[in-house]
Amino acid sequence: MDRFDSVGAQGEAGAQASMVPGLTVHWHEDLAQIPAGAWDELVSPLDGGTPFLRMALLKAMVDSGSACGETGWAPLFLTLQDEQGRIVGACPLFLKRHSYGEYVFDWAWADAHDRALARQGQRYYPKLLSAVPFSPIPGQRLLTHPGLSAAQQLAVRQRLLSTLAERCRAQGLSSAHVLFLSEAEALLAREQGWLVRQGVQFHWQNRKPEPFADFDDFLASLQRDKRKKIQQERRKVRDAGVCFEVLQGPQIQQADWDFFARCYAQTYHERGQQPYLSDRFWQQVAGALPDCWVLFVASQNGQRIAAALLAIDPVQKVAYGRYWGALAEVSCLHFEACYYQPLAWCITNGMRRFEGGAQGEHKLTRGLLPVPTWSVHWLEHEGLRHAVADFLMRETLGIDQYKTELGERSPFKPEDQCP
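The chain above was modelled as a monomer; its predicted structure follows.
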């Protein structure tokens, strides 16, 4: 534990942090050390906080053996506490031995680092990583207590960032990375010397000010060729005799979770890989967060053949397309299970946004539009930092051009043609 009661050598970040009296820094290898209610108090108001930043899900990741030291995700969570011991800032953190399951790729950085420095005993891994394991969910990562003033929240975020860099220096770590954080947090990190990286995801937004009435209303807003393509794909699934059952929250029984876990694992086994998330994870999170899941189960000739799982934030009215798998091949079944069924459910239930996950330009023609994502990176070695900064400058130009091109390919009708 480190104490930051005064300004002194801590610099500007320490001066700002002193706006919260008696601020102390705590590192947690055991998540049981962090009161779940105190952590969730920071998370519950956030867009993107439920369910992915809730302590129940993060703890299930660790306790199930999915994200733990044995799999290269050693938890090292950070909390900042005020003089009363109240958690006023936090960051989900892992000491990573690799870059799997992150969706922001730095393998080339690791290779360049080790080619240059391995003979001197310096290695890229382990690195310090703030992320939701295996889930590219955009949202805040520098968590602050909602009872703090805006100035105090800013000070706490600054302190969190500087603490990450200090930890790397103290432990001889090559780097710290914060993935899929908010744009405001990325800009704050840039002010503190972190490198900023952009990405693109595809999200569906419900219509404003008048939400879509039903899926046909949504289809009517699309250009004719896009609408016909979706109709054709859905017809192929129906003609194959596939029907869907939609189960929400407590309606999902253990047998349903078991079937879904089997389908989920199948997608990895087909590629010769082990699933990131274990069967034990699904058992734990089903009981811990029962109201945050919607399961779409596909059947053919009376037999279940596929399943897709949607995570939801019922308060913020946001849905996240996450996981799926199939035990039989049916043309266009993936699109139906992972996009059209969830979108129809979102419209019926008044959801305002559906996030389709990482990458996937094919989502554009299905009504999901490009949105920017952000990550920030602190690199200890000056030479590597300059090389990565140059790479990111060129990559950002490419991303900007890509977003412009995507914007010119909107699947929706011009506004004057919309119903």
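Residues 104 and 179 are 7 Å apart (CA to CA).
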